[in-house]
């Protein structure tokens, strides 16, 4: 009986160890600098079955981490640029030194877009309420019509990019697309929420079925978090 208990203990320890290895198998250390990789605000499996844990881990721990590393490398010798902050740099790309403008656009945009993206998920879908729900009804007619507009935009984005809903100080909502890692921040706008339509965001589970991914994504939207962003935008306090 004692041997059996010890065997169970060893198996349990092995299982815990395997879980730890799996959880951190995709981690990538970022280069030290002014910009850091924010942790996922929930476990990588929190969006199952709609977005699988492996995709979440690779997407965050490798892709987002690479944007942070490359952004830190770009501004390493330009402390005055780093001091502008993420939204400040992206809003004044034309004023940045030629040597780093493209790197900041691509990697700063990737950092901003993904930092926003993680916060919007981990929820249970459903529907928003309050002022946000009223704005959606006003600008789109209904939540279903908003979803249709966002999904249609996501399907028409050629190649890599994002489909987004922007918000202005008056609270008006607009659906738009941006290629690669571009963001409305580059035009002085603000993003209420957005969905990543780069293939790495969905290919492991959905392969080339982008439409299925777009439809499933609404099941993990964190509407209370989106509502906070909406309130912050109208108060002029929404950063990225």
Q: How would you describe the overall organization of this protein?
A:
The chain contains ten helices and three strands; from the N terminus they run H-H-H-H-H-H-H-E-E-E-H-H-H. With 240 residues, it is mainly alpha-helical. Strands 2-1-3 form a three-stranded antiparallel β-sheet, sandwiched between helices. Helix 2 (53-75) runs antiparallel to helix 5, helix 6 packs across helix 7 and helix 7 runs antiparallel to helix 9. It is globular and about 50 Å long. The model is unreliable at 1-24 (pLDDT under 50).
Q: How much is the average pLDDT?
A: 91
From the spread of the alpha carbons, the general shape counts as globular
- Taking pLDDT < 50 over at least 5 consecutive residues as the criterion, the unreliable ranges are 1-24
What are the secondary-structure elements, in order, as H or E?
A: HHHHHHHEEEHHH
Helical residues, percent: 40-55%
Cα radius of gyration in angstroms: 20 Å
State the secondary-structure class: mainly alpha
Percent strand = 5-15%
Identify the strand order in the major beta sheet.
2-1-3
Taking the alpha carbons of the first and last residues, their distance comes to 59 Å
Count of alpha and pi helical runs: 10
In this structure, how is the largest beta sheet organized? 3 strands, antiparallel
Number of strands: 3
